[in-house]
Amino acid sequence: MMEEVFQFTIARAFAKNAHGLARVGRVRSRTATFETPNYVATTSRGVIPHISPDNLEAHTNIQGLYVPLEDFIEQHKPTKPAPFLSYAPSRQDTSATKAFLGLPENKLVILGARRTPPVSTPITNTNSDIAVCTSVGFQKLPASEYVDIVKALQPEMVVAVGDVPPVGYTAGWRRLDKMFSRTERWMKEITEAKHDTDHESGGTVPGLRSAIFAPIMPVSSEHQRWYLDLLSDDLRESLSGLAIYDTDTALDIPEALFDLARLSLAEPKTPQQLLRGVSLGIDIFTAPFINDATDAGIALDFKFPASKRSLSEESIRVALGLDMWGTEHSINMRPMVDGCQCLGCRTQSRAYVQHLLSAKEMLAWVLLQLHNLHVMDLFFADIRKSIEDGTFEREYDLFERYYEHEMPEKTGKGPRVRGYQFKSEGPNEPKKNEPAFRAFDKVDNTTTDPAESAPGADMLATDLQRQGLGEITKE
Fold this sequence. Notes:
Layout: E1 6-10, E2 15-16, E3 21-22, E4 25-29, E5 33-36, E6 38-42, H1 53-59, E7 64-68, H2 83-86, H3 96-101, E8 108-112, E9 129-134, E10 137-142, H4 143-153, E11 157-159, H5 173-192, E12 211-216, H6 225-233, E13 241-244, E14 261-264, H7 271-279, E15 284-286, H8 289-295, E16 298-300, E17 321-323, H9 343-347, H10 350-358, H11 362-389, H12 392-402, H13 450-453, H14 461-467
Parallel strand pairs: 6-7, 6-15, 7-8, 8-11, 11-12, 12-13, 13-14, 14-15
Antiparallel strand pairs: 1-4, 2-3, 4-5, 9-10, 16-17
């Protein structure tokens, strides 16, 4: 009998609150265990930004990663697969995906077609293709080919493709009908792959062993009622979870799908939005704002539960992070966050991190990313404990009143932006990155002879300091 590749169990009874149902659970795969609610780190071309595989293993507690397929298929053709898709590990019991990316086997991998947040594309989905943004431009990925790729890679979890509109998009009835008919067709195609047999293994192993997460559209419940009924009645046995693109749609999950794991791809921008998702029963989150904060030079600084304050202090909200670009840190020898036990805070000072940022040294973003991931690990561990203790509702309300509702404003220049991270705005748009080198300032021909302006023996020290050594003055 085939070993279960994925299993989700709810560890204990739900904690009811004013917003919905918060719950504690556990995801088990063949090699990984993942406590929920929790977050998965978002990757760029297979790696967590600024984190090398050795640092991932030695200095983080990350249990899962979200890997977008569009990062690897820029040169992919059915006759000549991309290296990511044709890589064969040396050991048969090793995941091809993890072996190619250099990930340890005890990390959970979620494969999706698109990044989170996705770059909007000028081309639209069709009845057979989805539009993706690769590192060399926009392309179309056939939905059937996506199924074949998933069967080849066999990640623990896969997000099924859907004709997902942007959150907040107002669709007419014709667009809604097209959206759900396409998604229904693609869902049936990937769930049928569960029942295919791999003839190379003697017909005993299903062609697709990955846990399938069905997309829930970011539209109102009445607009997708029949689609939810399809998932509940016809496809339920083939599903392991739901992929949610709008947090509010978690309120509309039918009872037949209630015990499935819920993955949020809703692009939260603050920890408050993560807490709202937890309150609605979402189990797994992507949190792109972690990478955004790191790139902006911000050290996250929040805890759950928040500290209790007196009534006189409640009118002043506390910032969610510390902008390390500030010159006030240049001689500050305290750690980024007092009491933090991450590698950066244990070994370095604010002054050193601020110096690294000013010098554009990539070690600055390594230390910030390790710190921010550590903060998120503790954040979710404390959330799980509060649900188990029955205090989540009260502590959620306290957190809302204690902290600012937006991240600190970015003041410095982050790392270079990659071309596949944003959509072009058209011709003559300003460059996203400043040039690394600049031309010397043009000097006109009216400058005096250097010898005439060189400092003499009778020059006062104050004049010498003002002019500087070796500098040429203009008349």
